[in-house]
Design a protein that fits this description.
Strand content: 5-15%
CATH architecture of the largest domain: 3-Layer(aba) Sandwich
Largest sheet: 4 strands, antiparallel
Number of domains: 2
Radius of gyration: 18 Å
Number of strands: 6
Number of helices: 14
Length: 299
């Protein structure tokens, strides 16, 4: 499984690139495809540049793909299923062979630019409701107005997207009802109707991509279904305005026989969410060279 936007941190991927040629070549390829030194931004920042959506998205894909390549080569990782959280679905499709790395870089750079532009036209924000049930979170969003569930991450954690005013109202309602709320550091109302212009802008880039059947299968965290190649463009397009149902996707993966979840890329957010869904699920995180020993032990 591969993380989405929010997992980025200055310095990500540097140790992998310094210690593994496969990872270094992934960063070199990204620099060539994008036409600027993405590797420098990942390794040294500045943070403001790395968190810009149009840079952050291909940067996370690059680190995730680098980690995947090293894990496959050095630890013999052979997963039976691929999944990702939002942007992480592009990394998952690269790892499954359905999308080339170069295509993923170009498409996510355009995706990030499109989302950033949509956020300027209709400024928005996102906030996590902690401790509320899905139904209570939905009710709070509806009461606030101009706010919609964006991420059903795990039991008692729902992220809401909305206009700036809508999220302000949501925060006030949550505090009044005794629900913990945390504003996210993003520059738009992702996975909400406010991203419709971004979806339209991204459509030509996805139309130019020719999907290959994923092997191993790809489990969408938007539809919670194993998606065939002919559906992948629509899934990635709809993803921009639809909520991510990560918790339900983890449950589906467990039903399909998954027992160990390997998070490839920076951070440990997804590993924590998996444990919130199923406490006894095995989780391994691979983002640094030192993580490979844990992966080999789990295998």
């Amino acid at each position: 499984m591969f993380p989405g936007q929010g997992a980025q941190a200055v310095g990500m991927g540097r140790a992998l690139a310094e210690s593994h040629e496969l990872a270094r070549r992934a960063f070199e390829e990204a620099d060539d495809v994008l036409g600027y030194a993405l590797s420098d931004v990942c390794f040294a920042g500045p943070a403001e540049r790395l968190t810009a959506t149009d840079v952050c998205q291909p940067a996370l894909v690059t680190v995730s793909v680098a980690a995947w390549r090293v894990a496959r080569e050095e630890a013999g990782l052979e997963p039976g299923l691929m999944m990702g959280h939002s942007l992480g679905e592009y990394s998952a499709l690269v790892a499954a062979g359905a999308m080339s790395f170069a295509d993923a870089l170009r498409i996510t750079a355009e995706r990030g630019a499109a989302m950033r532009a949509a956020g300027r036209v209709a400024p928005g924000a996102m906030a996590a409701l902690l401790g509320a049930s899905d139904a209570d979170a939905e009710a709070l969003a509806a009461e606030a107005g101009d706010a919609w569930p964006a991420n059903y991450n795990c039991p008692a954690q729902v992220v809401i997207s909305g206009s700036l005013e809508g999220i302000d109202r949501l925060e006030g309602l949550a505090v009044a009802r005794g629900v913990r709320v945390a504003r996210l550091q993003v520059d738009g109302a992702f996975h909400s109707p406010l991203m419709a212009p971004a979806a339209e802008r991204l459509r030509p880039a996805l139309a130019a991509w020719e999907p290959v059947p994923p092997a191993p299968p790809f489990l969408s965290t938007t539809t919670c279904a194993v998606e065939p190649p002919e559906r992948l463009r629509d899934v990635l397009l709809g993803q921009l305005t639809s909520p991510v149902r990560f918790g339900a996707a983890v449950e589906r993966a467990l039903e399909m026989g998954a027992r160990t979840f390997v998070e490839l890329g920076p951070g440990r957010v997804l590993s924590g969410l998996v444990r919130r869904v199923r406490r006894d699920a095995g989780v391994v995180q691979v983002g640094e060279p030192s993580d490979l020993a844990a992966l080999q032990a789990a295998a």
